[in-house]
Amino acid sequence: MHHYFSLLHIFSWLDCVEILFFTFIIFKFSRWLRQDQRSNLLGYFYLGATGLLLAHLFDLEAIKQFYQISWPIMLMIFIIIHQKSLQKNFVAARTLTPAKYPEQGSWLSLIMGAAFKGLQHKKNLTFVIEGKDELEEFINKPITVNSPIQESLLNMIIESSITQSETMILLTHYGKLIGLNGSWQKEIDPLWLDKKYETYEIWEQGALYWSHHIDALVFQADPLTKTITLIARGTRVPLLTSDKATSIIEQYIRKNQLPPLQKKTQSQEGALS
Amino acid sequence: MNNLKSILCSNYVTFACALILGYSLWLMLSHNQIIQQKITIPVTIYKTKNTVDITTSIEAMIEGARHQLRSMYYHPPKVAIYRDERPGNPVQIYADDILLPETLSVINYWPHEITN
To answer: A121-172, pLDDT tens digit by residue?
Structure first.
């Protein structure tokens, strides 16, 4: 080997193979840590590794021993934190290709009508409009439907005994009915929610929590006020007229974010994220 | 700040950091590893005190801890022998004739004798 390699304690090509082996593992691990957008895990990893190198360089035995004992634990913490973040971001990584349907307003007015008609049949229908994040991992749907929204179909759903009184109806953002009798796959621990949201209904608490993590829009007609309560992006917008709610949903579908709302109607709230 | 983050997150920088960390980790783990190294040692045979008779070299297998082997490059081993035999006879080389740093040892060497 060349003299310069000897200065680096490298005396054979096998040493290079060993170094490349460690480099490859660290590179793959670094790239994996880098995928976590929520916390700067890669930065912390570099910081920890630099600490170990300095301890080795200056022969700080106590710190070296501490590292030897705690490195596996540190790596486990990195993995757990990362997995948690991945879990939260899971659907964000799986985006759906939007299909364009020209008559957006028509199907929205149909489901608005269905929401109020459901109240006449004593059914609180919660409509969940899927955004770019796939809902399949988050919502159970015992009845799968794959049909464009039609008035007759909605009437049949409302009047059918199969449809539960408190149920979720899943729709795509281009006007397709995809599921009935849906429910969130995971129940929300009350500790996750701020105490001031305890007064909200269960569907609102669930929608506030999950809409922090996915871009679905959830709404329901209020039987008392005969208005629409809409929740998206962790924001609850109550007391909307049917027209106003339709307009907001249209804008949300187009831009994937809620339009700026008047303070009267908007209450920025949500679950602890 | 975002620019710095994007630079640090680029594949090249990540690989460079991984290379540094990989090398350091390897060095830490193999610091005290005993390894063998084949080297060429110059041999000088003197006829009289200041008269060089033969200049040649031998191959030797040296053993020592990795971090100690590096000292060979600061203090290169050598062999210097005074020929007290008649010219024409081969000169025997013994392990003790190979001058090495104390922490290193000779496993084997060849040839064992030098002829004219």
So the answer is: 888 888 998 888 777 777 888 888 888 888 888 888 888 887 777 888 888 8
Tens of pLDDT, residue by residue over A30-44, are 988 887 766 788 888
Chain B interface, mutation test: which of A27, A37, A58, most B Cβ atoms within 10 Å?
A27
Cα(first)–Cα(last) distance of chain A, in Å? 56
What's the complex ipTM? 0.75
Segments making up each domain of chain A, as ranges: 2-95, 104-255
The structure's pTM equals 0.50
Cα dihedral: B98, B102, B104, B107 (round 10): 50
CATH superfamily placement of domain A104-255: DNA integrity scanning protein, DisA, N-terminal domain (3.40.1700.10)
Q: Write down all domains in chain B, each with its CATH number in brackets.
A: 1-31 (no CATH), 33-114 (2.170.120)
Q: Tell me the shortest Cα–Cα distance from B23 to chain A, in angstroms.
A: 5
